[in-house]
Amino acid sequence: NAGVTQTPKFQVLKTGQSMTLQCAQDMNHEYMSWYRQDPGMGLRLIHYSVGAGITDQGEVPNGYNVSRSTTEDFPLRLLSAAPSQTSVYFCASSSGARGTQYFGPGTRLLVL
Amino acid sequence: RKEVEQDPGPFNVPEGATVAFNCTYSNSASQSFFWYRQDCRKEPKLLMSVYSSGNEDGRFTAQLNRASQYISLLIRDSKLSDSATYLCVVNGDPGGGADGLTFGKGTHLIIQP
Lengths: 112, 113
Hints:
By secondary structure, chain A is mostly beta strands. Chain A has strands spanning about 5, 10-15, 20-25, 30-40, 40-50, 55, 65, 75-80, 85-95, 100-105, 105-110.
């Protein structure tokens, strides 16, 4: 049981490049979320999903897309990377409202 | 607008001391409350849930005060390994995503030998 996994661990991009951050969970959780964490800002919700085929925007969705074709996977796409997207990205999953939220180990992204 | 507020610290505390910090929330309809712990350059992990009657887990005690809308975390006999950032988490915020969770920015605790 691996829990929540994220790849890559580190990534350096140039402005304008696109990439996909991968997230997978093997706990059969319906709820999955993407956060970014910046110094002094805490965790900010980017996008979330309450089940396969259903996604919605969080607090800071601009510049990011998500899809949820399976229960296990919830990739985050950066369409055209900008330096303001330099951050640590965490994926999380939970069994539902009031359930414990389990986080992946994070992806550290630097956009030059 | 963030609806969960925490003192960012840092709290510098000698080993063996007792330390407490609070978190205030603005949504009176919130039903679930948690403390998460985040070590440097790691992901947040659940420390404990907070129940209406208060609850204890070893050296850690969590309290909920619904009237004043705050939760607290008390750490007794602090250890060097308690050094971390403690995140207050509350549900019930309509903007809080799939499970309605809103995270505070965290309180940084440093236990000194």
